[in-house]
Amino acid sequence: MYRITARHRLAVAAVVVGTALAATACNASADKDKTPAAGGGGADPAKNIVLVTPEPIGVNDFLKLAATGAQNAAKKQGGAATVLESKDTSAIQQNVEAAVRQKPSVVVAVGFEFSDVLAQQAEANPKQQFLFVDSCTAKPYPNITCATFREHEGTFLAGAEAGLLTKTAKVGAVVALDSPQIRRFSDPFGAGAKQTNPASAFTQLFVGGQKPFNDPARAGEQTASLKAKDVDQIMGAASAAGNLGVFNAAKAAGVQAFGVDVNQCSAAPGTVVDNVIKRTDIAVEKGIEQIAAGKAGGVTSYGLKEGGITLTGLETGVETSQCLIAQHPDVIKTVLGLRDQIVSGGITVADPATAK
Fold first, then answer.
1. What's the rounded Cα separation, in Å, for the pair 24 and 220?
2. Distance (Å, rounded) from C-alpha 33 to C-alpha 113?
3. Which pLDDT score is estimated for 16?
4. pTM for the whole structure
5. Measured between alpha carbons, how far is residue 87 from residues 35, 49, 92, 181, 240 in Å?
């Protein structure tokens, strides 16, 4: 989904990231806690990159990829990468302030939680460049470059897989909230299924309630409700906690599910078909290159064409991904063709976030 925090992140599985990255946990209470991630030695401080995360990276693949992108970009421009991991809400602001004090070439922040603090810091430090990943400030700033994702393109492809795999011609989605942004992970799923299986029907249910992004029990109940309607392919768009509810219920019901953001197949082997992957490493690396080339500011969108969105089934290593799609090379071949049509403009996927 669009970047989700530990409270409601769609990130479960682990992806191995280069051991050269040595991230440090930091609550920015003291500058001495800042540790370079890579590149030390003869790196030029003026070309350094500081990445601030909204929570500790741990096994969070979404943030691991962002750190890898920062490392790669820093290495290319002769600098070093530093990671400041926030432990709580107050640490987010402290870490951004600490990052600015280092005067790096770019301060990178991942997630909507940074919107207010980046706006404040961009205004107070007009010479400092910022890269805001997976979100953007309400007001544009010439020194804030935003990198967003076209998640709906990947969701469409996942739906196309579901359309080819369904035995009941009924597919569905369990969604955290009924909002245009979150519907990027559900509406296109039904459209993709329709593309490959015109007879298919689509039903989506919303978790809602007081904790829509952290209610696996409710997400499981919604999954069971879809099964009762004979749905056998389900997109899980209910966060890490919520998707575990979806996956567990899907396994118990004998239906198949799809994950998002990272490879969630290892969370429920034999149940998860595929995942809509968001390549934060691509967005970070290309965003920093864009700023270095003197093209700072504005919003750059990353989708299938730019490599910012993909499916686990379309990536190398699918054979060892634990995803069910690996058992269906014919489906992968068909979806590759659809991807190429989207990239070339032959197919336009409707974006629920911009629909009027």
1. 36
2. 22
3. 29
4. 0.86
5. 16, 20, 8, 26, 18
